[in-house]
Design brief:
Blueprint (H helix, E strand, L loop, with lengths): L4 E3 L34 H10 L7 H18 L9 E3 H7 L26 E6 L5 H8 L2 E6 L4 H11 L10 H4 L8 E4 L24 H11 L3 E7 L9 H12 L2 E3 L3 E4 L10 E9 L24 H4 L13 H16 L30 E2 L21 E2 L3 H7 L12 H10 L3 H15 L3
Parallel strand pairs: 3-4, 3-5, 5-6
Antiparallel strand pairs: 1-2, 6-9, 7-9, 8-9, 10-11
Length: 451
């Protein structure tokens, strides 16, 4: 910077790149896009600024935003009438406006499937955001997300593609938390659940890399004091360490200044998706609001009996790729694996669901995909397109597709899947079930008088 001006480099560009075209590594101009330290790059700062322009709260914020815009312009290799011109800080900020000299370069941040409402009724932050299940649910209710955090690189990529916003990275870093607005209405978070999962080692707070992340939520609640929070976790949290872990969590939430509703386990299949998925919900209201927690009522099931959706309702309408069909060799392995466990008195092993029933919970790792196999005999071309042992089975046994997993969690079909299948399964398996979240959040927001 010289004499109050900043030199903005420019160069020829043959095409207008997409926001997803950025490299994952640090480029020469200092932009690192994805990963748990994404808070160190400019993309999170830039995208949050573009969506929340009223959130410049300090000179430090202003300087970082200006630096981010400048780096973005350099990386985009713009060629405009101001080529090689030196700009003041205010001119750089103005340049990012929709009608500014470079405004069109930022269109991609807004041409996304799930933009924020124009006139939001409330604000929220999205912690441990994953791919945005909480965000879709609360945006559907009229909310605007003013901060997001997620350190998984591939999840960040999906989040950016669908919301035009790069989540900040590692929430344990004070530098990451420093970008959280001082005022917002609701804190949302599906904090990491592996430490409490019935399928894992269930170390709870002894798991230093996951279990203690709850205390980052507590820290933010203490410092920002939003009106309320909405947390989600696996049902195993309710019985972990004979209930002592949940008791500790509730005590810390109370000490942070909140009256907490008695947690409840809800099943996603009761709220419009054909998936048996039980999760515990924890909701609280700031004490000075004087909201009687007994006035809060969890939503009544909306899909029971004949009204319950069937897997057939979310099943692919057309023939799917042969790559989703299991090989004969792999089927033999699964059969032997299941027989060994049955002989030992265990219930482990592959499962073939009834497409006129509900799916089992979709989960990451282990036998997650194999516990939700189905029979689909529409395949017409049995020629493998991947390296397999044996042949493609002729019984029609296949895995679900990532899009079917997305639908099982309530994601609309215009939700973009921009990663490889392995990452997509992980992302949807780790997500919240949107309809159940939305139904519960609606009750919370009504009690707060925000909708």
């Amino acid at each position: 910077m010289r004499g109050g001006k900043r030199e903005v480099k420019s160069a020829m560009s043959k095409k207008k790149n997409s926001i997803l075209d950025f490299p994952e590594e640090v480029s020469e101009d200092g932009i690192k896009i994805y990963g748990e330290t994404s808070y160190e790059n400019q993309m999170a700062v830039l995208s949050h600024y573009l969506h929340n322009k009223g959130n410049i709260t300090s000179q430090k914020d202003k300087e970082e935003i200006i630096s981010a815009i400048t780096a973005f312009l350099v990386h985009k290799q713009f060629r405009q009438s101001v080529e090689n011109k030196e700009l003041t800080d205010d001119e750089i900020l103005m340049a990012a406006e929709p009608q500014g000299m470079f405004g069109s370069l930022f269109d991609d941040f807004f041409k996304v499937p799930f933009p924020a409402p124009d006139k939001p009724k409330f604000t929220f932050i999205d912690l441990f955001a994953g791919i945005g299940g909480f965000r879709i649910a609360l945006q559907n209710l009229g909310g605007k997300c003013v901060y997001s955090s997620e350190f998984d690189a591939k999840a960040q990529e999906t989040y950016l593609a669908n919301f035009g916003e790069m989540p900040f990275g590692d929430i344990t870093k004070e530098s990451t938390k420093s970008y959280i607005p001082k005022e917002f209405d609701i804190l949302c978070g599906g904090f990491p659940c592996q430490a409490f999962s019935l399928a894992g080692r269930r170390l709870g707070f002894k798991d230093e890399t996951r279990g203690t992340l709850f205390f980052e939520i507590e820290d933010i609640l203490r410092k920002r004091q939003p009106k309320a929070f909405f947390l989600e976790n696996v049902k195993g949290l309710a019985i972990h360490d004979k209930g002592r872990t949940l008791k500790t969590i509730l005590e810390h939430l109370s000490d942070a200044g909140y009256n907490v509703v008695t947690p409840q386990i809800l099943n996603a299949m009761d709220y419009g998706v054909p998936q048996h998925r039980e999760r515990i919900y924890i909701i609280g209201f700031r004490k000075d609001l004087n909201i009687n927690v007994t006035d809060f009522h969890y939503p009544e099931p909306t899909s029971i009996g004949d009204k319950r959706p069937k897997f057939r309702d979310v099943m692919e309408k057309q023939e799917v790729s042969v790559k989703y069909y299991l090989s004969t060799t792999y089927m033999e392995t699964l059969i032997r694996h299941k027989a060994r466990h049955e002989a030992a008195g265990h219930g482990f092993g592959y499962k073939i669901i009834d497409i006129d029933g509900v799916a089992n919970a979709i989960v990451v790792g282990g036998m997650g995909r194999e516990c939700n196999l189905l029979i689909d005999k529409r395949l017409t071309n049995f020629t493998p397109i991947t390296h397999i042992k044996g042949e493609v089975n002729r019984d029609g046994i296949r895995k679900m597709t990532p899009r079917e997993w997305a639908r099982l969690q309530g994601f609309p079909d215009d939700f973009k899947i921009v990663v490889a299948d392995a990452s997509a399964y992980k992302q949807f398996g780790n997500s919240v079930a949107i309809p159940a979240i939305q139904a519960t959040a609606k009750k919370e927001l009504e009690l707060l008088g925000l909708i």
